[in-house]
């Protein structure tokens, strides 16, 4: 019988790549989607016809229990979150509820549905993956960051993710559940939300190239990140749930670039000079910035055999090309209508 996976956050970037990957591995894939008429569900269905959808919300404990009862999954991937860091200052309580408490609700749904209690050997039937984040490192105490680097989150989002991370560890230790966290560094693709800097830049370049815009407004150009390709990172999520023992892993490329270098690479890919178009705007700076993040993915390489495949310049060029195609064909990224 096919293995069954339940993915929260199915309508997001990672949800789509993970669903695609697991379908390719022969899984029966279910996605948890919220809202009675979520336009992103139709966008997903256009891309992946085989995904089945179950309604539910990370804010609603009962809906998660019902979803787990209905799907009877072998593996649960908790990717649902408010994931845009600036929004976490504007809606700090909601971020805590969805990104933080949502993890508790999902773990409880699994625990209750699989009859797990302290010291109960029936534990561990459903394997659980939590989407932890390099934002938990925040103001870093060492570079590169490993599974042992201390957390010092710099946003309500980072704090909520740290709660989810420790809680996942705690359910593993308290109940013997197979529950793990992937501490993933930034990963991008042509399906990235338009609010994140890589996609904002690739869309901005495409608009300028096609004569639809004359400038691109950005915040802090000096911030440095470890950017990889989302398609590579979902493989790591799956590998973590196939390992002999449940453990947490750092996932990233080990290479760091600045926003300025990202901008240079993107404009270069369209044969444009970035200095003629980029305007910096103090209003786009964050109340507390994470200056740099760089992964040490050695544990994942050695224990899981995981390696990233797409170099930075290729990733950026791929995103710019995809947005040039999208806009040339009349696609509208703000309407959530199209997905490469
Ligand atoms: P996206 O922002 O693209 O997707 C977020 C998903 O969460 C959407 O499907 C959204 O659904 C869903 N969601 C939001 N609120 C709720 C809710 N109340 N109940 C259920 N689902 C909800 O994120 P990514 O795909 O980029 O990231 C996936 C996960 O990985 C997130 O948890 C993110 O924080 C984490 N992460 C991402 C990294 C990255 O670089 N991409 C790096 C490290 C961690 P809807 O369509 O209904 O809004
Ligand atoms: P991040 O991603 O906050 O790292 O979180 P984002 O792309 O939003 O920012 C990266 C860096 O770019 C700087 N920046 C800008 N960012 C945005 N969005 N818009 C701008 O105009 C701009 N100008 C400069 C930011 O200050 C920042 O330093 C992502 C999300 O996917 C999280 O969910 C995830 O956990 C982390 O990556 C790892």
UniProtKB/TrEMBL annotation:
Domain NAD(P)-binding positions: 6-319
Signal sequence region: none
Keyword NADP: yes
Reactions that this protein is recorded to catalyse: GDP-alpha-D-mannose = GDP-4-dehydro-alpha-D-rhamnose + H2O
Cofactor(s) essential for the protein: NADP(+)
GO molecular-function term, one example from the UniProt record: GDP-mannose 4,6-dehydratase activity
Presence of the UniProt keyword NADP in the record: yes
Pfam short name (any one): GDP_Man_Dehyd
Job description of the protein: Catalyzes the conversion of GDP-D-mannose to GDP-4-dehydro-6-deoxy-D-mannose.
PANTHER family (alphabetical): GDP-MANNOSE 4,6 DEHYDRATASE, GDP-MANNOSE 4,6-DEHYDRATASE
Family label: Belongs to the NAD(P)-dependent epimerase/dehydratase family. GDP-mannose 4,6-dehydratase subfamily.
Protein name per the record: GDP-mannose 4,6-dehydratase
Organism: Nonomuraea guangzhouensis
Top-level taxonomy: Bacteria, Bacillati, Actinomycetota, Actinomycetes, Streptosporangiales
